[in-house]
């Protein structure tokens, strides 16, 4: 498939792209796989099974085909930024400065498989000598609590830009990029479907921070007072968008919901517990409603429009496996 035709030229960049030019290099998965060069496979089949989310078929073959080249590319970006850091310290006559974490953003629709990609990358990147400490934070911890969303009648817009405490996201990333130790990241539970009050993951100056969530490439409306506000992605050193046809993502979301009925929803503490015991067709109707009223709307309105901001686009086919890659030119 020709990803260059699929990834439409964003209108706002039109004037930078005379006919036929694109800011991306495009590769088939076979071409991309060659870039792994002699990168060794450092994960076992069992580890990959442990890292994958429900319904994601990723296996060692996919890690070898796609993720080794990706970890090699990212690791060269990390090493270059470490080199630049040292050169700049010499230039500025600074001594004792400590490098701030290299931040990688991962964006894409609900149910596209961001968590699996983030977890596999975390493990692979930590095996490079330049980045032994890799942390992962998901943006769901920055959602407003359900009580707030309910009081604002926003539960059916969970995951929309307005459902996140973006100021808290910016404070968190500013602290990370200021090189602060022990920065707390709030946590979310998919089981209770809510943020976990007073539960934090403490991020203490990793070499790399992976920041994953549907909203990470979104901009903010310019405030009327003309004050300049940063975007979340201003803090990224590299960004990845995971892409797929919306029909495929729909199928993955519905299949996952129906499988969660047999697993996570059975837990009496699950927010969706009641859906474990209703009939199949009623459950399907609920899943279709959640998809079309919330997640598809969000994908079309707020997530897909951020795709042209990514440095790298991983395009999945019907089987969840990556079939094409677009890499922004330098
Ligand atoms: N209702 C749920 N109950 C339990 N786990 C869930 C539920 N919804 C999603 N998950 C899990 O949460 C993780 C994040 O899912 P999601 O936000 O859809 O992003 P993605 O599929 O792109 O990783 C996945 O590992 C998924 O399996
Ligand atoms: C929590 C989510 C918004 C994902 O958030 P993210 O981790 O990408 O910030 C999503 O999993 C979700 O709950 N969506 C709302 C509709 C639904 O229940 O599918």
Q: Would you give an account of this structure?
A:
The protein has 330 residues and is an alpha/beta fold. The protein has one domain: P-loop containing nucleotide triphosphate hydrolases (Rossmann fold, 3-Layer(aba) Sandwich), CATH 3.40.50. 37% of the residues lie in helices and 17% in strands. It has a seven-stranded mixed sheet. It has a two-stranded antiparallel sheet with strand order 4-5. Helix 4 crosses helix 5 and helix 8 packs across helix 9. The longest helix has 33 residues. About 3% of the residues have low confidence. The structure holds adenosine-5'-diphosphate and ligand PAZ. Ligand PAZ binds next to helix 9. The ligand CC(C)(COP(=O)(O)O)[C@@H](O)C(=O)NCCC(=O)O binds next to helix 9.
Question: What's the quick description here?
Answer:
With 330 residues, the protein is α/β, with parallel strands linked by helices.
Total number of helical segments? 9
> Could you estimate the helical fraction of the residues in percent?
25-40%
Main sheet, how many strands, which sense, barrel? 7 strands, mixed
| Tally of individual domains | 1
GO biological process, one term: coenzyme A biosynthetic process
Family: Belongs to the prokaryotic pantothenate kinase family.
Subcellular location: Cytoplasm
Protein name: Pantothenate kinase
């Amino acid at each position: 498939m020709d990803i260059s035709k699929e990834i439409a030229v964003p209108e706002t960049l039109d004037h930078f792209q005379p006919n036929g030019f694109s800011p991306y290099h495009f590769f088939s998965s076979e071409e991309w796989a060659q870039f792994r060069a002699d990168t060794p496979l450092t994960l076992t089949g069992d580890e990959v099974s442990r890292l994958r989310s429900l319904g994601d078929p990723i296996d060692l073959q996919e890690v070898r085909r796609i993720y080794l080249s990706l970890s090699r590319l990212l690791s060269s970006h990390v090493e270059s930024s470490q080199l630049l850091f040292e050169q700049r310290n010499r230039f500025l006559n600074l001594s004792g400065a400590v490098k701030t974490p290299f931040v990688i953003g991962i964006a894409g629709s609900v149910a596209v498989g961001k968590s699996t990609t983030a977890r596999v990358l975390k493990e692979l990147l930590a095996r490079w000598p330049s980045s032994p400490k890799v942390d992962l934070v998901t943006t769901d911890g920055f959602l407003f609590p359900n009580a707030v969303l309910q009081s604002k009648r926003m539960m059916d817009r969970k995951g929309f830009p307005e459902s996140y405490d973006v100021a808290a996201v910016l404070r968190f990333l500013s602290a990370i990029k200021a090189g602060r130790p022990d920065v707390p990241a709030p946590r979310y539970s998919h089981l209770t479907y809510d943020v976990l009050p007073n539960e934090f993951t403490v991020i203490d100056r990793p070499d790399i921070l992976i920041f994953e969530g549907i909203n990470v490439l979104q901009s903010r409306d310019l405030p009327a007072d003309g004050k300049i506000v940063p975007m979340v992605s201003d803090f990224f050193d590299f960004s990845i968008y995971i892409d797929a046809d919306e029909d495929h993502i729909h199928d993955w979301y519905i299949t996952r919901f129906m499988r969660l009925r047999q697993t996570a929803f059975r837990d009496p503490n699950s927010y969706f517990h009641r859906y474990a015991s209703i009939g199949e067709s009623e459950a399907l109707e609920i899943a279709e409603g959640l998809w079309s009223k919330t997640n598809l709307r969000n994908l079309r309105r707020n997530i897909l429009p951020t795709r042209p901001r990514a440095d790298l686009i991983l395009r999945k086919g019907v089987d969840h496996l990556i079939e094409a890659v677009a890499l922004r030119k330098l």
